[in-house]
Amino acid sequence: MKIRRSNERGYADHGWLRSYHTFSFANYMDPNHMGFRALRVINEDRVAPGHGFGAHPHRDMEIISYVLDGEMEHKDNMGNGEVMRPGDVQRMSAGTGVLHSEFNHSQENGLHFLQIWIETAQRGIQPSYEQKHFPTAERQGQWRLVLSPDGRDGSVSVNQDVNLYASLLGAGDQVTAPPSRYAWLHVVKGAVEVNGEALATGDAAAFTPDEHVELTSHDASEVLLFDLA
């Protein structure tokens, strides 16, 4: 178990955007944190009301968006236009190339979301898009599969051998992580104890194959678990 503390992450303040980078991104470069297995980016972004990312290109990357608070408006040149809210998971496969924009849909309230990049298993695929909502009840006190290679159990599909689980925990809840190959645990919010180590909002931990992962929540918490080949 290797811990990545929240205050060790890269940080950028653009006024309208405040962003923490778990792995090297843009002007933040740390050769010791270039990603984990196929997981390349976890950016925790806060976007001011009425602001956002104008149309920009991507290619050969699986881009996952996970809204924590507020509303995010997505548009792309494939013709998709959606407003994401907490509980929504969106996957955009950039493939041979796609243009998209992401804006705070509100003129009054802030937007808080995670943008996650996963290296694709195959380059040059046809761009595609998928978004699904996962109700609170399906994540409360348990692991809910929200992303998988085959879209099983109603999850969003992804072009890589990665399973992503989400869980909402109340104070005192205990859960054991599903069996995994390599695992990356990200504390979205709250305070948990993982294998005896205290982790708080923004902290993360990496695990080797088949390492037992036991969580106890000390506060209302939200956690993501990546199972990676």
Characterization of this structure:
The protein has 229 residues and is mostly beta strands. The chain contains one helix and 22 strands. A seven-stranded mixed sheet has the order 1-20-17-22-15-13-14. The protein is globular. The mean pLDDT is 97. It holds the Pfam family Pirin. Residues 8-118 form the Pirin N-terminal domain.
Low-confidence stretches: none
Can you list the strand order of the major beta sheet? 1-20-17-22-15-13-14
Percent range for β-strand residues: over 45%
- How many separate helices? 1
Shape: globular
End-to-end Cα distance, whole Å, is: 17 Å
- Which sequence of SSEs, written as H and E, runs from N to C? EEEEEEEEEEEEHEEEEEEEEEE
Q: Nearest-angstrom radius of gyration?
A: 17 Å
Q: Major sheet: size, sense and barrel closure?
A: 7 strands, mixed
Average pLDDT confidence is: 97
Coarse structural class: mainly beta
**Which range best describes the helical content: under 10%, 10-25%, 25-40%, 40-55%, 55-70% or over 70%?**
under 10%
How many beta strands in the DSSP annotation?
22
Keywords:
229 residues, mainly beta, seven-stranded mixed sheet, 1 helix, Pirin family protein
Present the secondary structure layout:
Blueprint: E1 2-4, E2 10-13, E3 17-21, E4 39-47, E5 52-58, E6 61-69, E7 72-76, E8 81-84, E9 88-93, E10 98-104, E11 111-119, E12 128-133, H1 136-139, E13 144-148, E14 156-157, E15 162-169, E16 174-176, E17 182-189, E18 191-194, E19 197-200, E20 204-207, E21 214-217, E22 221-228
Parallel strand pairs: 13-14
Antiparallel strand pairs: 1-20, 2-3, 3-4, 4-11, 5-10, 6-9, 6-11, 7-8, 7-10, 9-12, 13-15, 15-22, 16-21, 17-20, 17-22, 18-19, 18-21
